[in-house]
């Protein structure tokens, strides 16, 4: 996201908080790709549902945003929370995947299906992996977004990377 895009979002957030309905709609349209980029790797097939839930939460809670300059961190925290919640709800409805069913090394399906490997991780592990390796947050910032102690974030990240490597190289 460019600095101009970031500034546009902050400007729209200020106008939306002041009651400008058109700015609110534009803000939600502006945030949709950002929220989707966060939710999809965590909630996988349920990513669109998670993104919709996150945008609804942004819509309803926008007036509680104290500092519009913190818009993207605030939205990131909401998106991660909703993606984890949606993924956990979906995982209760589906049987757990078998980690031994990963395609063999050299299989073309393996190279094209990172999502399959991510699906084998728990939503909590996918969330910390996305925050750290996709969003570029450090462990302490990821822990703050996930509302867990930094040590827990570090151990989850270690386990998530280890599980991902194991499934990827199997």
From TrEMBL:
One of its GO terms (biological process) is DNA-templated transcription initiation. It comes from the Bacteria. InterPro entries: RNA_pol_sigma-70-like, RNA_pol_sigma-70_dom, RNA_pol_sigma70_r4_t2, RNA_pol_sigma_r2, RNA_pol_sigma_r3/r4-like, WH-like_DNA-bd_sf. It holds the Pfam family Sigma70_r4_2. Keywords: Sigma factor, Transcription, Transcription regulation. Residues 113-161 form the RNA polymerase sigma factor 70 region 4 type domain. GO terms for molecular function: DNA binding; sigma factor activity. CDD domains: Sigma70_r4 (cd06171). Belongs to the sigma-70 factor family. ECF subfamily. This is RNA polymerase subunit sigma-24. It comes from Streptomyces katrae.
């Amino acid at each position: 996201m460019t600095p101009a895009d970031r500034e546009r979002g902050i400007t729209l957030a200020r106008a939306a908080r002041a009651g400008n309905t058109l700015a609110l709609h534009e803000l939600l349209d502006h945030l949709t790709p950002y929220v989707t980029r966060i939710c999809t790797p965590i909630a996988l097939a349920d990513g669109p549902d998670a993104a919709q839930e996150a945008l609804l939460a942004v819509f309803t809670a926008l007036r509680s945003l104290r500092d519009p300059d913190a818009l993207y961190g605030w939205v990131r925290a909401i998106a991660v929370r909703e993606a984890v919640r949606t993924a956990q709800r979906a995982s209760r409805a589906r049987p757990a995947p078998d980690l031994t069913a990963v395609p063999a090394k050299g299989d073309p399906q393996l190279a094209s299906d990172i999502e399959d490997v991510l699906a084998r991780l728990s939503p909590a592990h996918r969330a910390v992996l996305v925050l750290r390796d996709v969003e570029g947050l450090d462990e302490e910032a990821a822990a703050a977004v996930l509302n867990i102690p930094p040590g827990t974030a570090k151990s989850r990240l270690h386990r998530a990377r280890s599980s991902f490597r194991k499934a990827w190289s199997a």
